[in-house]
Amino acid sequence: MSTPDDRRIAFANELIRVRKKAGLNGKQLAERCGWQASKVSKIENKRQDPTDSDVLDWMTAVEAPESEVERMREWLRSIDIDRASWKHQLHRATLTDRTTVDRSRAASRSSVCSS
């Protein structure tokens, strides 16, 4: 099972693939999207997560067919949902661990006070 980070990496790699397939470099793509070239670099190097609007702009700039645009937007939505779920699970695990530690400490204090 892949993590949300694994899926983000695969998604960024797919954005690079479609850009290259369109015969564009990062600067050309940025110009078509009305962005700074650094934004393309950050997205491609996984230092910035793209928004749905970014993906729409990107796919429009590379003149992707509508079916491809929707596939990429859906993929991004699923990554966002997975990331939120992942964070929730980690938060719950952390809370469970804290509760276990707190109970263990309370039990230790209780046994020390009883002695």
Question: Which class best fits the helix and strand makeup?
Answer: mainly alpha
**Count of DSSP strands:** 0
Largest sheet: none
Outline the low-pLDDT stretches: none
From the coordinates shown, what is the CATH architecture?
A: Orthogonal Bundle
CATH superfamily: lambda repressor-like DNA-binding domains
Residue-averaged pLDDT, rounded? 86
Q: What is the CATH topology? A: 434 Repressor (Amino-terminal Domain)
CATH class label: Mainly Alpha
Number of domains: 1
InterPro entries: Cro/C1-type_HTH (IPR001387), Lambda_DNA-bd_dom_sf (IPR010982)
Pfam family, one: HTH_31
Domain HTH cro/C1-type: 15-51
Protein name: Helix-turn-helix domain-containing protein
Question: What key attributes describe this structure?
Answer:
single chain; 115 residues; mainly alpha; 434 Repressor (Amino-terminal Domain); Helix-turn-helix domain-containing protein
Description:
- This protein is an all-alpha fold and 115 residues long.
- The chain has a single domain (4-85), classed as 434 Repressor (Amino-terminal Domain) (Orthogonal Bundle), CATH 1.10.260.40.
- Helix content is 81%, strand content 0%.
- It contains five helices and no strands.
- It has helices at residues 4-21, 26-33, 37-44, 52-61, 66-114.
- Helix 1 packs antiparallel against helix 5 and helix 2 (26-33) packs across helix 3.
- It is elongated.
- The relative contact order is 0.11.
- The model has no long low-confidence stretch (mean pLDDT 86).
- This is Helix-turn-helix domain-containing protein.
